[in-house]
Specification:
Structural class: alpha+beta
Largest sheet: 3 strands, antiparallel
Number of domains: 2
CATH architecture of the largest domain: 2-Layer Sandwich
Order of helices and strands: EEEHEEHHE
Strand content: 35-45%
Shape: globular
CATH superfamily of the largest domain: K homology (KH) domain
Distance between the termini: 40 Å
Length: 136
């Protein structure tokens, strides 16, 4: 597999429970009813948060911030009717580290969300994305 491809395998287990993973990785339990595992929409929010988080870690390192903690809360707003897709995502970034200030963190978040985060860039363009930053 090349850098320009991504792959996952998903296997149905029972009811709305599936197991899925990338090649050679331990499986994740995904549950359409959110009982036995993370739901697909929750997993999408996790993907958005971790993709942005990975960018932010690298950007802050280049800004000479010695990161001690990065917590990201992702909340998705869904349509009432089917398809119950996301219409908005709210991300809250809480950062702690030597050299971290609001200007640097907001710049790192903006660069991630506007330029580098491949998961966010893969979402439908009409999904509103808002973010909030807290420095500890």
């Amino acid at each position: 597999m090349t850098r320009n491809t991504a792959q996952a395998t998903v296997r149905w287990r029972h009811q709305l429970v599936f197991e899925g993973s990338g090649p050679g990785r331990p499986p994740l339990t995904i549950d359409g009813e959110s009982a036995a595992g993370t739901s697909p929409v929750e997993l999408l929010l996790v993907a958005c948060a971790t993709c942005a988080g990975a960018d932010i870690v690298g950007i802050l390192e280049k800004m000479r911030v010695r990161l001690e903690a990065l917590d990201i809360e992702a909340v998705g707003i869904r349509r009432e009717d089917h398809p119950r897709r996301l219409t908005a995502i709210r991300l809250r970034f809480s950062v702690r580290g030597a050299g971290a200030n609001e200007t640097k963190v907001r710049r790192a978040v903006a660069l991630s969300l506007d330029k580098y985060c491949s998961v966010m860039a893969s979402l439908a363009p009409d999904i509103r994305v808002d973010c909030d930053v807290a420095i500890a």
